[in-house]
Structures are given as structure tokens and as C-alpha cells.
Fold this protein.
Amino acid sequence: MGLTIAQKIIKAHLVEGDMTPGSEIALKIDQTLTQDATGTMAYLEFESIGIKRVRTELSVAYIDHNTLQSGFENADDHRYIQSVAKKYGIRFSRPGNGICHQVHLERFGKPGKTLIGSDSHTPTGGGIGMLAMGAGGMDVAVAMGGGAYYITMPKMIKVNLTGKLRPWVSAKDVSLEILRILSVKGGVGYIIEWGGEGVSTLTVPQRATITNMGTELGATTSIFPSDEVTEAFLESQGRVEDYIPLASDPDAVYDRIIDINLSELKPLLACPHSPDNIKSAEELSDTKVDQVCIGSCTNSSLADMLKVAAILKGKTIDPSVSLSVSPGSKQVLTMLADCGALSDIIASGARVLECACGPCIGMGFSPNSAGVSLRTFNRNFEGRSGTRDGQVYLVSPEVAAASALTGYITDPRTLGECPEIVMPDKFKINDSAVILPASVEEADDVEVLRGPNIKPFPEASPLEDNLTAPLTLKVGDNITTDHIMPAGAKILPYRSNIPYLSKFCFGVCDETFPERALASGKSIIVGGSNYGQGSSREHAALVPLYLGVKAVVAKSFARIHAANLINAGILPLTFKNAEDYDKLNQGDSLEIDGLFEALKTGSATLKNTTTGESFELSCEFSERQQKMLLAGGLLKYTKGE
Ligand code: MIC
Ligand code: SF4
């Protein structure tokens, strides 16, 4: 039987397990990336493993999230990451060099390689034919130490593309269309492979926009073939030697095939507060817009920025709109400046922000109260913008620029002819903002610089056979990690200070939770389906761990968050009958007895001692996961404690 592209890369990197969908497999990881908001914790964990130098082909530490430096905290963390990178053999991408996924695509990604990153949008690398996955910091730490990365062997979806995007319609609209078809849970357990004759019409940055937002589908990752378009991109980045062709076998088997005709797509938006709440721009054209933000790892390539500049050229944005533009990398910004497009953006009235995540993670540029904000980003979860009642819509750069000019949600097709942009044959290469690590000989003398904001991280105690604890929080479906552990300018600087962060845990849902959980000592959380969707932040597990959470019982879990819970030593258990969710109430006293046996049989009984009812839970874990849970998490398991 033929293989898909992803299956070929998996086969070439398989170190344990067999490739039957649903079973656990272990993969050799060629490259890792971290960003600063998850990186500090990942490097603290890496240090605690006690290895002298990373064992990957390439590891890069990016600084792109926490760039505000409104106090010493971020600056200290940056220094810490820079010194750790120097000591342990990791390249350090300085603040200002750009968003990790954009820079990695430009300078480091290689078709056919495996990459894990402590950021959920690592699948951006699938645009260049990499098997690139988001992971928790601990998993990245272990991979840097040469350990394998464990996933459940995914099933395969093929999206068969035909036709060609029409003027004013963009790769972002392809992402929004697949979200409309599949929803934010539709990709869970799958790798999404993009194929068909339409693929050759898409550039690498367009492909990367699409694989980037595969994360919003819950997919393990998304991937494109590596073809002449990939080769041309690598050539223009001065690294054609990294090219290898990659295609699926003609008789490759997919679990599901979805057809999308690119020629039929139109400009779309994801409405508040979910990336799968899709409407067309023409339907929403009466909606007044207060703010427009262009950038993020989804839409900050040179081509996207040139398109925006061409739309804005010679015009002024509507007086009621505030527009921000954050180019994705120093390379993009430099080339925009060199060709004069940056001047067109500035002259239109835009505020040009640094090459970083910026508003996407609530680092400034929060909208006004109840403000309508159009963003070329990938997530519009409630409160993520920093304004609790902000109304965030996800859009393409074309819709963003058009709407900034008119002050209303605008279908850009109403603006007349779409301006043509000319892409250069060669990108401007200057890697001076990537600092190389010390040599093996010099590494011992490098001192790791720690600031006072770094506090020890919590570690779980080994699993106990009986868990008796109150239900301290009950939440609904699609709870995101932004609900569990919010980000934003006020909180992000404390990512290496779990005790401080814990005060904000579940703040969007219930501000009283942290106090209640601490007072209870041990507790259990109950959730709906797709619990923990969104980011890879392991803080969404470490902070509940600190607050005494021992188990989360949900209808289903998002992939990375479930792994983070197990890594932290918290039990993710699922209802065997989803209706049992309705029979539990916040404040109930719960008991799960015989956990050691339950791990072996895969079934546990949850007793609600308040009502006297009992429910069956699925407690199915691989042997490795069982050992981790028994030991009290991944680090203890890895160190053999
Ligand atoms: C995000 O987009 O939510 C983030 C911020 O990039 C996160 C990582 C983090 O929380 O630090 C992600 O996507 O994994
Ligand atoms: Fe940064 Fe936003 Fe991308 Fe996350 S989604 S990596 S915050 S740009």
C-alpha cells in the first residue's frame, strides 16, 4: 500500500511503535524551536534533565512574544534564554528578528525533517514539507536532550485542491473555508495533507498560512508536498541545498478526502469568538470597524505585506480606524523598507509595530471597549485581545486593508482591480540577529544568568490509588488554554513564576477559582468536549497542578493539552457516556478509587458522593503514559525518580 507524505516522514523517523492509527508512536526529532513565553520553562526543564548539549540537528530559541519589557521580568528572561542557548548549543534569535514560525520557515525549515516547537503554530513548517508539530515545553526539552517525541499515530485527511484563487481571495480564505467545513474539533486525531492540482498555484508563504491555521482545526499537523515551488522558495532564500522533493504515493490511502475548488472561494471572516464561526465579507458589510491589526505568524510574509502596502498606497485609512502592521521578520521589514512599500504603509496612517507577535497575544493594541477588531491572526478567543468584550474577527490581509480604508467590514472585491505585486527572485539574507552558541570547549565556562522572576516550577507527587476531592470548577465545551491560563501584556511576563500566574487561572470563566482550589488542597475539574484547545502552553497544566488539581474529567481533550496534563502528572479522564457530564455539579464531592488497577484496565469509576451516583470513565493510556502518571510526570519519569 502506498504512503502519504506524512506517513513517509513518520516511517523515516519512527523509533518505537507501529503506524496503526490510534496507537502510540515515538519519533526522532531533527529540529526544535522555542519561543520566549514557553521557552523559559522549557529550558528550566531541559537544565533539570542534566544534559550538556542539545542532541538535535538544530535547535533555535526565538524571542518574539514577550517583547514589551515593561519591567525587569522579560528582559531577565531573555538574558536567561540567551545564556542557556549559548551554553547548550542552541541558536538564539534576538528580539526584533521576527516571529518564530516566519523566521524558521525563511531560514531553517527543511522538507522531510521533523520539527517540534513549544508553540502550537509550529505546523507552519508544513508549508515547506516538514512534519512540524506543536508540543509542550517538557516534550521539547526531552527532544532537545535526544529523546523521542510521542504522539498518537494520526489518521489522514486529504484536502484535494483544484482551480486557482481569484483576485482579492487569499490563502487565509482557504484556512477559513476548511474551518467552516471541519470546525475547531474536526482535525483532532488527523494529519491534514494538502494535495491536488491546485497546490502548484500556491506559494510557500501561502501554503504556510494554511498549515499554520491547521492548528485551529485541532489537527496533529498539516503538510504540503515539497515540489518546484518549494525548491524556488529555498533557492530565493539562498539554501537550495535543503530541497528534497516529497509527494504522496499515487495509491496512498486517506481516511477522508475533502475537495476545495480554489476558484470558487470568496473573502471570508471568522466571527467572534471562535475561528470556525465563518461568514463571508459581503454578508457582514454593514459592520463598523474600530481597529485593524495586520501581522502574526499566519499573515506576515513579505508577499502579504506587499499586498497590504499596494492596497493602502496613496490612500489614508478611515479616521475612526486604528491600524497596526507588524511584519513577520527582520527580512520582511528590511525588504519592505528597501522597495519603498513601508513608506506606503506609514503614509496611510498605520502604526508600524516591531516584528513580533504583538497584538496577537495581547501585547498591546487591545481594542476599545466592545470594539470591533479585524485581525489577520489565527485566534479570536474571548478576552485574548486583552479587552474582555472586544469583538475580534479573523480576516485575510486583503479584507483587513480594505476595511481599514472604509471603516466598515469590506469585501475587497468591491474596490475594483486587485493590485499586482512583484515578488523579488532573491530574499535579502542577513542572519546577524541569530547568535550562534558557544563551542563545546567553551560551553563549560558560559554562566547561565537567572533573574529573580524565575521561581521553581511545581512537580507532581506520584499517583495515589485513591483520589477523593471536590469538583472545584465545571466548564463547558471548547475551553481554550486562553481560558485556563490567560496571556496578555499584564500576565505574560510571569511565565517563569507559576505562583504569581496562578492568581489568574481560569480568570475569564471564574475569578474565584484559584482561591477555591487552593483552599481545597486537592481538586478535580470537569470540562466538556475539546477541553484545552488552542495553545501549547504547558502553564495551562502546571498552574492547575500548583493549585492542587489532580484530574480533569472531560468529554474529550485537545491533543497538546492532554499531553501536557500527563507530562505534569495530572490525570486527563474522559466520560464514557457524555451525558454523565450533566449529572455533576460544581461543589460535588468526588471519589475515584482503585486508580492503579484502573490504569491497567483502562476504566475507572467516578463516584459522586454528594448525589450517590457513579459513572464510568475512560482511563486509557499507553504504557509510557501510565508510568509517567505513576511517577508524577514526565520529568520524574525521564530522570527515573
Ligand atoms: C498563542 O498563540 O496562543 C501562543 C501564545 O503562541 C501559544 C504559546 C504560549 O502560550 O506561549 C501557542 O500557540 O502555543
Ligand atoms: Fe505569536 Fe500569535 Fe503566532 Fe502565537 S499565534 S506564535 S502569539 S503570532
Summary: Residues 306 and 422 are 8 Å apart (CA to CA).
